[in-house]
Amino acid sequence: MRKIKCCFTSLFLSALLFSGCSVSKFIPEGHYWLDDVKIESDNREVKPSQMNAYVRQTPNAKWFSLFKLPLAIYSASGRDSTKWMNRFLRKIGEAPRIYDPELSEETRQQIEQAVQNMGYMGARVELSEHKKNDRLKARYRIFTGEPYIVEHIAYDINDYKIDDYMLADSAHTLLHPGMRFDVNQLDAERQRITRYLQDHGYYRFNKDFITYQADTMLNTRKVDLTMQLMPYQRKKEDEPTPHRQYVVREVNYLIDVEESDPASILPQDYDSLTYKGLNLYFNKKPFLRPSVLADNTFLRPGRQYRSRDVQNTYSALGRLNILKYSNIRFREEVREDSAYLDAFITLSRNKNKSLAFEIEGTNSAGDLGAAASVAYTHRNLFRGSETFTAKVRGAYEAITGLEGYANNNYMEYAVETGLSFPEFMFPFLSSDFKRRIRATSEVTAKFNWQVRPEFERTVASAGWSYRWTRRQKANHRFDVLDVNYIYMPYRSETFKDYLDVMDEINPLLRYSYEDLMIVRMGYTYTYNSAGAAALKTSRRNSYSIRFNIEEAGNLLYVFSKMVHGHPQNGEAFQMANINFAQYVKADFDYAKNFMIDERNSLVFHVGLGLAYPYGNSKSLPFEKLYFSGGANSVRGWSVRSLGPGGYRGSDNSLDYVNHTGDMKLDLNLEYRTHLFWKLNGAAFIDAGNVWNIRNRENQPEGLFRFNRFYKQLAVAYGLGIRFDLDFLILRFDSGMKAINPMYTGKDRFPIISPKFSRDFAFHFAVGYPF
């Protein structure tokens, strides 16, 4: 085995070394291969990384910022392009980048201009070319010089209304004496003022109406800056006029009405009605209730035009699943000193109903089976874009390796229903509040019936929750009520005997197969600094935070204690003759994405979790316990096979119940790189484990203690491949154990003496792990 590994390593290194020599055959005579590009700066305020965006020609890509393997693959092809192997290698590889002096000079000029725009008016950039054989390394050296400083700011605003607005908003200005004469900052101030004025009726205003005049003092680097407001001119030949403030006169909805010109809409051509100042034009009958449109419209007749109202209306209408698209256009009318806007909002409906079928094959630890489901969706149940979903699923699996049972068949039947309202459904709330919070209300109900050789289990649940988003970055979820009912009507005699035997060894196992009720309330907050870009790989540094807290059983405990006074059989209170869980649980996740360049990034993640059972519960419900290992945790272990602490476990198939805990810690570091086509690669190091808060008789090494928990951290390393299909990411990760707290001696450090059959774990998942 060791000889094979050495052989592959030698072959890999040989390929890399050979590629350096074989590149030459693809370099035209008199040209050079661009081997490296480097930017250097003599000023800490001008970072070389800021100038990477201006580089017009980059060297060949490196995997993990180390190996130019795509180039090596391309170089392994021969000159004969008619051979299919050569064509294949060239397709998946990357051709050598031939140095272009014109692009390099363009890069030098753009970097120089960018630095000058930052206030270093005398900045210069030098380009040097270091040639060796047929290779070339380009170096850009930035010499900034001293910056120009704004000493005085004046305003030339000949419009008293706009002058008053700017004065009222002067606290938010981006300009101040003593700042660098930064062109980017000046442009940002123009955009800020433009947005502010567009939110105060100035429909036709844009940033080009704001200009700057800069005067420099002789032999100094001090600048006198004057901001000027240009009068309104729609065309150059038009007479300059003052900027007008527009008032929204009409808001018209065109429902299933296809018209390219708003002026062609005539009331007599369509059915119409007026509701709360909104004019609705439609054929036959509008597919949305007028009250729904009013609640999702921020444009109001008689109110000054605000660009923010337009965006908020687009955003609110975009939340209605029944709508395929919406479009807002305006028609202007100027009367003497007054200017009006008539808004026309076109709505096109989506499919009202849909039906989906799904057939799947299952494989649970080698037990093969099949499942089928049918799902029905209605996107406009009560003409308010309420989305109703219903799903029915059936599954069958042939279980092997069981002895002492009447049959070896596993069957599962499930029914799921949900109803989503695009508003905050709660009594006594005003329409303005509902419009501001933009929440979605959800009601769900699920029923699951499992029939196994060992037992029969019924799981019923119902939930009521709210979801809302703020500025496309922060997401909130509030579970007002979530009820889960677990009922075990049948347990075979063989299985009962097994639980009796295991009761002394592992009481948690019996607890996992008892009737239980969970009535919980929870809140989840998620924030991603990349906003909507988080759906794809972000091209800039970003971070995400997730926090969750939930509690269960407190109200039931107070009610039961008031009614019964004492727990049933001196152990626990019951509701409808079933024990209910009582606990509190909190989770925190933080992930930071560092972009190294456009192809490489480094991601750090930390996850913490703590749960505490009390009152009516001696232990958490099994589904609420933490586990470690798996595709999103310490990837050197399979799911539910690590911990708690240094607990080693047994080979029993049900021992996964023991590998759980009340606390969890995950630490992950992952280097991500783009390989070629839609393939991305990753190298990772994971660490973590789970622990118990209370001591379990059979797991003393699983109890959390401050003086030893860091010694019980499991560590793994590995590589991964990801298929980025735009709409989803398929992930394959292979991990190896590095430090195993479940063993002592030399087996504790498998990184020194790895054993593939013992230390390797493979994972398949959808999406990134964090």
What are its keywords?
13 helices, alpha+beta, Ubiquitin-like (UB roll), 5-stranded mixed sheet, 770 residues
**Could you estimate the helical fraction of the residues in percent?**
10-25%
Mean pLDDT: 87
Q: Which second-level CATH architecture of the domain at 2-143 applies?
A: Roll
Instruction: Give the strand line-up of the largest sheet.
Output: 12-13-14-15-16-17-18-19-20-23-24-25-26-27-28-29
Fill in the CATH topology of the domain at 2-143.
Ubiquitin-like (UB roll)
What does the largest sheet look like?
A: 16 strands, antiparallel
Report a brief summary of the structure.
The chain is of the alpha+beta class. Residues 1-24 form the signal peptide.
Description of the molecule:
With 770 residues, the protein is an alpha+beta fold. Among the domains are: 2-143, Roll (Ubiquitin-like (UB roll)), CATH 3.10.20.310; 149-229, membrane protein fhac (Ubiquitin-like (UB roll)); 246-349, Roll (Ubiquitin-like (UB roll)); 351-453. Helices cover 18% and strands 39% of the residues. Strand 8 (271-275) and strand 9 form a beta hairpin. The chain starts with a helix and ends with a strand.
